[in-house]
Amino acid sequence: MEFNFNSNYPVLESERLILKRITKEHVDSIFLMRSDKESMKFVPRVLAKSKDDIIEWIEQSDKLTESNDLVNFGIFLKENPNVAIGIIGFVRMNKSNHRGEIGYLTHSIHHRKGYTFEALKLLVDFGFNIMNFHTIEACIDPLNEPSINLIKKIGFNLEAQFKENFYHPILKEFRDTNVYCKINPNHIKN
């Protein structure tokens, strides 16, 4: 599995959203998300302390995209296409096994509006039909019920549970992980 998103980064669209490459022009809106404790509640990353943290994150993401190890999109409303309201992408890719791990974050002021669900549907479709993943997985904190409900609504099933397998730097404690997966419907053997 090889992808070349550097020269031709995909843009995905739904009724209300545009998913597109995050660039340095989006630093302000990404900083608002990554520095918001409520938005980052279930994301095992430290809060962004400065816009320089975001620039560094964008540069790291670009390097991982160049090496085909990651593909991230900003989530933008069509009515305001220069302000990111979220981030979604394949944060890990196991190319030899055609698997991708999906990760997503939406600013807390945009929770419960259906945007994350809409973005998830777009990305899962892209992962199965364009990237040709066999399986897409999502690693979710068991206390993150809204995220679990979203992923189940799209057809993911619980496949594994890991006890205290990662340290959450904001909560300063070890947390459990539930792994939800969905197999590409085009690959399912009858």
UniProtKB/TrEMBL annotation:
<dbReference type="Pfam" id="PF13302">
    <property type="entry name" value="Acetyltransf_3"/>
</dbReference>
<dbReference type="InterPro" id="IPR000182">
    <property type="entry name" value="GNAT_dom"/>
</dbReference>
<dbReference type="InterPro" id="IPR051531">
    <property type="entry name" value="N-acetyltransferase"/>
</dbReference>
<feature type="domain" description="N-acetyltransferase">
    <location>
        <begin position="17"/>
        <end position="177"/>
    </location>
</feature>
<dbReference type="InterPro" id="IPR016181">
    <property type="entry name" value="Acyl_CoA_acyltransferase"/>
</dbReference>
<dbReference type="GO" id="GO:0016747">
    <property type="term" value="F:acyltransferase activity, transferring groups other than amino-acyl groups"/>
</dbReference>
<protein>
    <recommendedName>
        <fullName>N-acetyltransferase domain-containing protein</fullName>
    </recommendedName>
</protein>
